[in-house]
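Dear colleague,

Following up on Tuesday's group meeting, I ran the structure prediction for the three-component complex that the binding team flagged. I've pasted the input sequences exactly as they went in, so you can double-check that nothing got truncated or mislabelled along the way. The structure tokens for the whole assembly follow below. Feel free to forward this to whoever is handling the docking comparison.

Inputs:
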Amino acid sequence: MNITSVNTYDAALPGGHYSQATVAGNVIFVSGQLPVRPLAGESVKDDISEQTYQALSNVLNIVKAAGGDITTIARTTIYAVDVKHWEEINRVYASFFGPVKPARSIITVAGLHHGFLVEIEAVAFTI
Amino acid sequence: MNITSVNTYDAALPGGHYSQATVAGNVIFVSGQLPVRPLAGESVKDDISEQTYQALSNVLNIVKAAGGDITTIARTTIYAVDVKHWEEINRVYASFFGPVKPARSIITVAGLHHGFLVEIEAVAFTI
Amino acid sequence: MNITSVNTYDAALPGGHYSQATVAGNVIFVSGQLPVRPLAGESVKDDISEQTYQALSNVLNIVKAAGGDITTIARTTIYAVDVKHWEEINRVYASFFGPVKPARSIITVAGLHHGFLVEIEAVAFTI
């Protein structure tokens, strides 16, 4: 199996030794995305709603660059720093995905890089 | 790739914007399952043994509804709130799976929704 | 789908009810690997650099035993106990993988078994 790396300026660039996503056959593995704006690389330090939206936007733009779309996202994992953010994360997430409902786990972690509140990764497929 | 959602009354219903599982080709992605009983939606507030068993039961029933069985579970991830529960989780898990040994990671998280002690997700395949 | 278990003496043996990895079709699911040396089963209690290298070495040896190689690792998940270790983990990881850049998430967990500092799991493919 030949694994290819996905690189797009439509999402935050990698901050370490990883690809935004890899593609293996028709499977797209999206790296954990933080609430960082593309190009400017500006951190979204606003509330959990804005951070959730920006992380989701990075995920989706990477999926699109890899040949998928919102309907081909099969699983997401949400890493949050506080269980109290669960309801608001779910609200923004529901608005973002609309009728699409990937498998999902929300995990409360001991901390995220740079003090962010949320990080989101995904497994998707090419169209 | 067409992603389909799995819905079964044999496992706890989703408590947010997600499917119990999605199926992409022959791959089944099961959402993180909490120790909640099907239909009644009753939380299992008993000890870690009961919680582990109920979460596993939800996972397996979803896998079956998606077209797999216990032998086609390839990976599980166990999120626990305390490393001290590891031995008992492993004991119940071993009894549940018998000769089947999926790849597995046990992760200690900073907290789970509703004060639960354990959550379990899985990747499986259709028969 | 027939799921097979991978067993190799070139990596630390399982410490619970799981396989070092499972293989489903051409997909390899590697269990979370701790910094434990093969055969001797000796724990690497040195600094984060040594622990990261040993965990990665276990992952790669399991991938090889399952029919893949370093270029067919599509995703890794790194569980670390302290965000302060991020830079050093990334440095050792970059040296280990060279030009290969799997999708990756680094998650800060509330604790690992036996007091280890890092655990690494992966999804890979057969060659």
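Strands of chain C lie at 3-6, 21-24, 27-33, 73-80, 103-108, 118-125.

Cheers,
M.
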